[in-house]
Amino acid sequence: MPAPVNEFKKALRSGECQFGLWVALANAYTAEICAGAGYDWLLIDGEHAPNDIRSIMAQLQAIEGSSCHAIVRPPVGETWMIKQILDIGAQTILVPMVESATQARDLVRAVQYAPQGVRGVGAALARASRFNRVYDYLQTAGNEICLLLQVESRLGLAALDEICAVEGVDGVFVGPADLAADLGYIGRPGEPEVQVHIEAALRKIISHGKAAGILTADSVLAKSYVSAGAAFVAIGTDVGLLAGGGTRLLEDFKKTL
After folding, report:
1. What domains are defined for the chain?
2. Is 98 left (phi over 0), alpha (psi -120 to 50) or beta?
3. How far is CA 249 from the centre of its chain?
4. Measured distance CA(11)–CA(240) in Å, rounded
5. 27: helix, coil or strand?
6. Distance from C-alpha of 159 to C-alpha of 48, rounded to nearest angstrom
7. What are the residue boundaries of the HpcH/HpaI aldolase/citrate lyase domain, all occurrences included (predicted)?
8. Residue 20's beta-bridge partner residues?
9. d(C-alpha 240, C-alpha 204), whole Å
10. What pLDDT is recorded for position 16?
11. 62, 68, 219, 233: which could form a disulfide with 28 (CB 3.0–4.6 Å)?
């Protein structure tokens, strides 16, 4: 029995745009609720949410069985972190703050077993192999791993051609918030100058045959990114839904009094 098919990676290769939601509440119960909403993918955030390896695993377990695919973002692109995330069952990883082709090549090696890479061989102990019940996991896992790199700085943009040229990179995600800050527009990713850089980056990623991704809670911008050819687009966050919905509920109720 081979490793499970990565349906998200398969969809990206077919050219289907996948719509997602950022999951940052660090809770398996809310992840399960979001997984039932019909999104193509959920991003479990280990960079800016209070997650650890156990809470990430619990959310993977909660999402499994739904039609939604789980993506995990580690805090940084460290090989040991990636090893743990893969072993608990993640098949798609989004690595933040990638700024060079050298870094991209190191990350490709981190998600592959030797001799192609440096991922530690511990599948017999791992949830990813169903605790060694997927008998040929070691031989087939690499084909189903989807590696996404996040470019979100001027340095990253300058190296984008070289990053996209690295074999084994499945997609590149443009991080609008950090990019806006690096361009001098902190907290204002919708500024025209920022959008010019984002649109150029999306075109460049697509020109290399890589899947392009982005996050925005602005529906107008989200539609423009889809029209530009983005292949995976997050259209909001669980935090935003709860905070915004809670505020609107109270405000709307008070208006009726």
Report:
1. 7-255 (3.20.20.60)
2. beta
3. 30
4. 27
5. coil
6. 25
7. 18-242
8. 41, 234
9. 30
10. 85
11. 62
Catalytic one among 48, 69, 197, 208? 48
Looking at residue 96, its amino acid is P
Per the listing, tokens 């340095």 go with 155
- pLDDT of residue 200 exceeding 80: yes
Helices and strands (H and E) in the chain: how many: 12, 8
Helix pair 53-63, 79-87: axis angle to 10 deg = 40
Residue listed under structure tokens 């259209």? 235
Give how far Cα 60 sits from Cα of 9, 28, 45, 69, 133, Å.
17, 8, 12, 9, 19
Instruction: Indicate if 208 belongs to the active site.
Output: no
**pLDDT tens digits along 47-82:** 999 999 999 999 999 999 999 999 999 999 999 999
Q: Which two tokens stand for residue 79?
A: 């090989």
- What's the CA gap between 152 and 175, in Å, rounded? 5
pLDDT tens, position by position, 29-56? 999 999 999 999 999 999 999 999 999 9
- Give the Å distances, CA to CA, from 3 to 43, 84, 103, 209: 21, 17, 27, 25
N- to C-terminal Cα separation, the chain: 62
How far, in Å, CA of 14 to CA of 53, rounded? 31
Residue whose entry in the numeric block shows the structure tokens 């692109």? 77
pLDDT at 1 over 80: no
